[in-house]
Structure to design on (608 residues):
């Protein structure tokens, strides 16, 4: 029995239920009303953030919104961002790797791209690219942030697919296929593509986990996908996150650690849960494939 | 070996030039102000001649000052960059070293206990630590420290850069990933080595288990472990960035974030004075560190299989 696959699927299934039926789940307040002040049983006034209590299962955030509802409803937006990042990465990496497999010039470009990124840590390069004014004040900033977050890892992923294709080429039965007169297209359709699909099944959840870790890291240093600039008192402007996605709950991390630990804990638990779910799913699928190959032999 | 080194240096130069070009992109942003100077929006148009002018003035600046020049207060920027950078290295280098030594030790431990009752604190624990985001572990540690503090058991300063507490805590945060990464690689290396013929020969000749492990398996596996050091260094530098920004440890990554920091706030009419010269200084230092580790891992990799040198 493949226990890893089961546990992983159950974890990701839980997240899926949150995404699909979020507002209808028990104890979820779909309207996300703000509680401004609350009187506790002794009659003292409580201002948000309100710690976990009978009214609020895991407390409220700094605006007084019930955190449990916020986390569950925020799942949809978080995963929307995640799906876009992973999809862009995979499609781009597939195109690049297949191109590099057949064309020498593209192979050179891919290696150059990879070497460039191997000299700059991911977070550095994201910060540098986001600070370019053309990106910062663009009307489609969210779009560019997504593109940048996806692009910095495309090279590495393309390399994974490329290695997979090379591995496939080395198989002895490929020689048979070639001597039998298989055209380039037939070879691709019948051998290379299926091998890529097997790789994809494992890589996709893996990438989702990685992208989520990146979102956590970016959340901690105050970079989010949806940002709007709002006026501060001193004529300065601060980017304010307007969405409900999980990384946003980390925006006040330094203060929350002292005064409202339940906010970052809720966000981190939700994100770590899905990351581990993705990794277990990938591990489980790897086991499943290994078992299948053994049976076929 | 010389080929490996020169190739990697060339790639480093290429990456550095691209990064400098990115940093020198002109900041010609036109702010649209509403009533009372409120922010309505900003338009940006990129003009190639401004970019070229920026690059030219940068090189004349470097040429004329013969270094990085001085800031408004007359202090040489070079000294600031190096002192701040050394502060970063003060937490980064120990973390990497701990990663290697403790990581290999943990890997050997994982390997030794893999078939005993204690295996759950071995390999599975390593994998677990690798998959949880570091920041979750860091926050867990901080919450623990705060809890202990509330009972008056410990007294640790969590934020800042000038106390020994900050340095030690940051080394702890930074070393989590390298330790687990190296432990995982060591474990995998030992696992593949153990079935090999020469091990069986050594065993049949009556060599002690410990001697086999250290003299043979580990010695042969070391290049493989070193070859992966590049990935680890890159990831740890990313972590350095987050740890410094989060704990307000004023090292190079912290200053880089805050001078680039226009990504989260700005003033109308003026982009936060982009301290481009020192940013380029930091980038130079960081990429140099990466180059050093890159060469180490490249040499180690070509020691494993000389044919793979081309990549």
């Amino acid at each position: 029995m493949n226990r890893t696959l089961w546990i992983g699927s159950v974890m990701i299934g839980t997240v899926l239920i949150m995404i699909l039926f979020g507002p209808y789940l028990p104890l979820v307040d779909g309207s996300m009303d703000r509680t401004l002040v609350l009187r506790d049983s002794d009659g003292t006034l409580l201002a948000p953030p309100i710690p976990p209590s009978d009214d609020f299962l895991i407390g409220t955030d700094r605006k007084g919104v019930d955190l449990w509802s916020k986390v569950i409803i925020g799942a949809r937006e978080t995963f929307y961002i995640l799906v876009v990042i992973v999809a862009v990465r995979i499609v781009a990496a597939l195109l690049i790797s297949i191109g590099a497999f057949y064309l020498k010039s593209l192979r050179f470009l891919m290696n150059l791209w990879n070497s460039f990124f191997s000299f700059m840590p991911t977070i550095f390069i994201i910060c540098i690219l986001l600070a370019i004014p053309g990106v910062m004040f663009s009307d489609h900033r969210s779009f560019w942030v997504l593109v940048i977050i996806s692009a910095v890892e495309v090279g590495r992923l393309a390399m994974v697919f490329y290695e997979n294709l090379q591995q496939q080429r080395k198989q002895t039965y490929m020689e048979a296929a070639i001597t039998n007169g298989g055209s380039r297209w037939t070879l691709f359709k019948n051998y290379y593509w299926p091998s890529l699909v097997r790789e994809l099944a494992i890589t996709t959840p893996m990438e989702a986990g990685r992208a989520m870790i990146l979102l956590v890291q970016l959340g901690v240093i105050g970079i989010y996908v949806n940002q709007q600039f709002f006026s501060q008192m001193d004529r300065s402007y601060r980017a304010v996150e307007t969405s409900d996605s999980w990384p946003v709950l980390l925006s006040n991390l330094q203060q929350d650690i002292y005064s409202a630990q339940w906010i970052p804990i809720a966000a981190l638990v939700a994100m770590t849960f899905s990351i581990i779910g993705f990794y277990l799913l990938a591990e489980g699928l790897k086991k499943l494939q290994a078992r299948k190959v053994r049976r076929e032999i | 070996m010389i080929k490996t080194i020169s190739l990697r240096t060339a790639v480093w130069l290429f990456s550095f030039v691209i990064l400098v070009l990115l940093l020198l992109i002109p900041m010609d942003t036109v702010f649209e102000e509403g009533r009372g100077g409120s922010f309505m929006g900003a338009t940006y148009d990129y003009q190639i001649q401004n970019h070229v002018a920026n690059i030219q003035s940068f090189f004349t600046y470097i040429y004329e000052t013969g270094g990085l020049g001085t800031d408004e207060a007359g202090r040489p920027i070079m000294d600031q960059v190096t002192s701040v950078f050394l502060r970063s290295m003060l937490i980064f280098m120990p973390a990497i070293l701990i990663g290697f030594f403790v990581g290999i030790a943990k890997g050997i431990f994982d390997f030794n206990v893999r078939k005993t009752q204690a295996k759950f604190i071995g390999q599975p624990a390593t994998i677990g630590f690798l998959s949880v985001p570091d920041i979750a572990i860091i926050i867990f540690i901080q919450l623990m420290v705060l809890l202990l503090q509330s009972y008056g058991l410990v007294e640790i300063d969590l934020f800042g850069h000038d106390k020994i507490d900050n340095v030690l805590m940051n080394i702890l945060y930074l070393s989590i990933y390298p330790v687990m990464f190296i432990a995982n690689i060591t474990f995998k290396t030992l696992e593949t080595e153990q079935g090999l013929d020469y091990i069986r020969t050594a065993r049949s000749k009556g060599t002690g288990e410990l001697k086999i492990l250290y003299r043979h398996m580990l010695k042969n596996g070391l290049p493989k472990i070193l070859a992966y050091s590049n990935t680890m260094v890159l990831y740890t530098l990313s972590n350095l960035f987050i740890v410094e920004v989060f704990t307000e440890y004023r090292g190079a990554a912290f200053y880089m974030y805050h001078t680039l920091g226009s990504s989260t706030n700005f003033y109308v009419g003026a982009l936060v004075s982009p301290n481009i010269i020192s940013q380029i200084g930091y980038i130079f230092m960081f990429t140099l560190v990466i180059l050093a580790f890159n060469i180490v891992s490249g040499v180690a990799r070509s020691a494993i299989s000389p044919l793979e040198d081309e990549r």
